[in-house]
Specification:
Layout (H helix, E strand, L loop, with lengths): L3 E5 L6 E5 L22 E2 L2 H10 L4 E6 L4 H17 L4 E6 L4 H6 L7 E6 L2 E7 L4 H10 L2
Parallel strand pairs: 3-5, 4-5
Antiparallel strand pairs: 1-2, 4-6, 6-7
Helix pairs in contact: 2-4
Length: 144
C-alpha cells in the first residue's frame, strides 16, 4: 500500500485521500464530515456503485441480494457483522438486484445471494450462497 488511500464517502460519494496509517482512526469525509466507515454495509445504486468501484483504493466486497430472497435475508445479519470486522481495510456494500437489474446483468449474477470481491476495480473472487460471519471474513481474507 502507498502512503495514502482514496476512500469514497458512503454518504456523499466524495473521494477522500486518507493516510494509510490513519485509516483505523475513524476518518471522516472532508466534504460532508460523515464517518467514512460505520461498521455496516453501504447500499449502492448503479451510478454510486461504479464510483466506489472506480475510485476506491481498498477492496470492495459486494453482496448481490434481493428483498424477496430468504437466504439473502438470513445472511444479512452475518454480513452486517462481517462489515464491523473487515472495515476499514475492506468496504462492504449491498446491491439490491431487484432494484438494480443492470448491475446484476452486468456482472452475470445468476443466483442470490452472491458475494463478489473487487480490487482495483476488477472482480477477483465470487461466491454464491449464504454464509455466516466467520465464513465471510475467512473467505474475504483468503482472496486478498
Amino acid at each position: 500500500m502507498s502512503d495514502s488511500l482514496h476512500i469514497v464517502c458512503p454518504a456523499c460519494d466524495a473521494v477522500n485521500r486518507i493516510p494509510t496509517a490513519r485509516l483505523g482512526e475513524g476518518p471522516k469525509c472532508g466534504k460532508c464530515h460523515a464517518p467514512l466507515f460505520g461498521g455496516h454495509p453501504v447500499e449502492l445504486t448503479t451510478p454510486r456503485f461504479q464510483r466506489h468501484l472506480d475510485r476506491s483504493d481498498i477492496p470492495i466486497l459486494v453482496d448481490f441480494w434481493a428483498p424477496w430472497c430468504g437466504p439473502c435475508r438470513m445472511m444479512a445479519p452475518a454480513y452486517q457483522q462481517a462489515a464491523s470486522q473487515l472495515e476499514p481495510r475492506v468496504r462492504l456494500v449491498k446491491v439490491d438486484t431487484e432494484a438494480e437489474q443492470t448491475l446484476g446483468a452486468r456482472y452475470g449474477i445468476r443466483s442470490i445471494p452472491t458475494l463478489a470481491l473487487f480490487k482495483g476495480g476488477r472482480e477477483i473472487a465470487r461466491q454464491p450462497g449464504a454464509m455466516g460471519t466467520a465464513d465471510i471474513v475467512r473467505w474475504t481474507h483468503g482472496h486478498l
